[in-house]
Amino acid sequence: MHPFRLVFLLPLLAACSSGGDPVACLAPHAGEIRADFEQAKLEETWSGEAEGIPENFTLVSSPTRKGAGALKLRARKGDVANGGVRSELTWDNQDRAGSDAFYAWSIRLDPSFPDIDRVEDAQGRANWQVMGQWHDQPDCQKGQSWDDIETRGPAVSVNYLWLSSADPKVQALMANGELATVVGFSDAMLERPLFGLIVQDRLRAVTPIEKDQWIDVRIHHHWSRGADGRVQWFVNGQLVHTYEGSTMWSDASQYFKLGLYRNPEIVPDQVFFVDEVFVTRDETAMTAFAEALK
């Protein structure tokens, strides 16, 4: 396992290889999906997979980012699926090394969404809360199985963070200068909800968010294991950070998981909503999609 460089983000287990009997390969998809959650059943609006307890996925008519429907999700202690506490939608866009892909979704944290004011649990593990991730998997074109690859955290992820000035671990990270290397971090980022971008096991950037408001997230990937890789991260229409460098653990498609995957020791329920999900390889289509949300 590869630990995150920032110790409070240690460790994330591979989402589809931790526990259970994962399939050899995820079902490949056609390179594009759009979900507005306005249909009567989840499988009618989301053609990928869902990982979690079914009762934690509910189609609702309010609140919505746009249109008549959204998806309400809940993470609850003890609700274990595929080896972890998670409520996630999964999509394998088959984006191999050298390709470009564009991902967008809107997310809203319920006003009751609790903040975990310590970045580590009592056992010294990170209180991770991953809300969007791109994960390694076996390269089925080479005949690999899960037994052939190393267990890793996601290559790229968007995480919910709450950094408390009273947390000894946060104090240590500020004192040794590690947090100063994170784009967007300042004392003003303490004691408030944040999203953080992690690439290759290191926190690269943070941005403030608000609960009970829709947050539009958009990411442009240029997938590569080399220096020409790129991740552009937009929040609410604003470019937060451009990362350049390796964005993949292997040449296989880094499959997408959207929702919440969290430390199993987190106690309170966490409720949030997802709407207007769009994945495409067409930059013009993504630009038009983003404009229509304004």
Can you tell me about this structure?
The protein is mainly beta and 294 residues long. The protein has a single domain (7-293), classed as Jelly Rolls. The chain contains three helices and 16 strands. It has helices at 42-45, 168-175, 283-293; strands spanning 33-35, 49-51, 57-60, 70-75, 80-81, 84-91, 100-109, 129-135, 156-161, 194-199, 202-208, 215-222, 230-235, 238-244, 255-262, 270-280. Strands 1, 3, 4, 7, 12, 13, 14 and 16 form an eight-stranded antiparallel sheet that branches. Strands 2, 5, 6, 8, 9, 10, 11 and 15 form an eight-stranded antiparallel sheet that branches. A hairpin with a 2-residue loop joins strand 5 and strand 6 (84-91).
Ends: how far apart?
41 Å
CATH hierarchy: architecture: Sandwich
- Oligomerization: single chain
Helices, by number, come to: 3
What structural class results from the helix and strand content? mainly beta
Describe the sheet with the most strands: 8 strands, antiparallel
Spatial extent as radius of gyration: 18 Å
Low-confidence stretches: 1-24
Total beta strands: 16
CATH class designation = Mainly Beta
